[in-house]
Design brief:
Layout lengths: L1 E8 L4 E8 L19 E2 L11 E9 L6 E4 L2 E4 L4 E8 L23 E5 L2 E5 L9 E7 L2 E7 L9 E8 L4 E6 L12 E6 L1
Parallel strand pairs: 4-7, 6-14
Antiparallel strand pairs: 1-2, 3-4, 4-5, 7-12, 8-9, 8-12, 10-11, 10-13, 13-14
């Protein structure tokens, strides 16, 4: 038999089915993610205790310097030791050169995957082809490494979005940046996570 687990991303109004062996499972009864906003939203606990998840959003959009793009917002305050569901919306249509295959891999994310929404296409993946990486969301510290490849935006007026879940291991500061070669050194494609 095939078991189907359904995940709904309310911000995009899309339902994704993931297949596994076993019986048919009903959709999970979890709180849907909130509408896109620039500040993190904490999902309340189901029955007391710590929050279940925190939802945060970033956008890659044209900066004030022509031809350059920036993360917005470029600072996030997030809790540590709680699953963070981050949605990144990319409005940049250009793919960029990547230095190594590792730049095109999803690293450090829960389940090692990301969910990509490109126009009407929705898919989960562990990596992107090297020539299909537009930007990355990369955090690299001695205690934590996260790399999220982001495809270019090929649909006018509708961003390509990537949703990924991760857990920050401890309170502290976590710088993030884009590791695509044409973005390194661009002031806008970097930022800071303050973990509480």
């Amino acid at each position: 038999m095939i078991r189907t687990a359904w995940y709904t991303y309310a911000a995009m109004s899309v339902t994704i089915g993931v297949l596994s062996m076993g019986g048919i499972a009903p959709p999970p009864t979890a709180h849907p993610p909130p509408a896109l906003s620039s500040s993190p939203t904490i999902q309340p606990p189901l029955s007391g205790g710590a929050p279940v998840s925190v939802y945060a959003n970033l956008t890659i959009n044209a900066s004030s310097v022509p031809g350059l793009y920036a993360f917005s917002p470029n600072t996030l305050t997030l809790p540590s030791l709680v699953p963070i569901v981050l949605t990144i919306s990319n409005f940049d249509p250009r793919p960029g050169p990547v230095a190594s295959p590792q730049t095109a891999e999803v690293i450090g994310a829960t389940w090692g995957t990301e969910v990509v929404h490109q126009g009407t296409y929705v898919y989960a993946t562990h990596f992107l082809p090297m020539n299909q990486v537009g930007h990355t969301f990369t955090v690299r510290t001695p205690q934590f490494f996260l790399n999220v490849p982001i495809p270019p935006d090929y649909t006018p007026n509708l961003p390509t979005t990537v949703t990924v879940t991760f857990v920050l291991p401890a309170p502290g500061t976590y710088p993030f940046y884009c590791a695509v070669l044409t973005s390194i050194g661009q002031g806008g494609l970097q930022g800071l996570i303050s973990a509480t």
